[in-house]
Amino acid sequence: MEYLLNQCVVINSSHEIIYIKGSIPYLRHSEGKISNNIFRSVYDEISLDLRSAINEAQKEHEIRITPFRSVQIFDDVVRYLRVVVIPMQDERNEDWLSILFFQAEKPEFIRGHISQGDSESETIYLQEQCLCPVVWRAQ
Q1: Domains of the chain
Q2: How do residues 106-122 score in pLDDT, each as one tens digit?
Q3: How far apart are CA 138 and CA 112, in angstroms?
């Protein structure tokens, strides 16, 4: 795999966002007191999968990819979203960081049966069948 670093989020082992590169439309902030916690900044539909992927990536020191989840971005805009988690050790203090890449696809770009009646939280396990796979390369 190659890694494209034009849009990513870096979090520390406490799940706090410490760096954002590029514009990431899948991060959001609620009204009220600001939090840099990644799980409060992502859509609820992907939060549980993301937590599991981050924990596994940090434990195994291997890349993890969440399954696609249906996320309603606006009233009439639905995207299937997954997150790639890459663990990386911070050489300064030996803490483990995670680099997060968000991949979103329109429903018509994902192979498989997706009906309009499917619930938003339905898991779409189609990582290998995406017509527009993530292309990543170091820059």
Answers
A1: 8-129 (3.30.450.20)
A2: 777 775 534 444 444 44
A3: 31
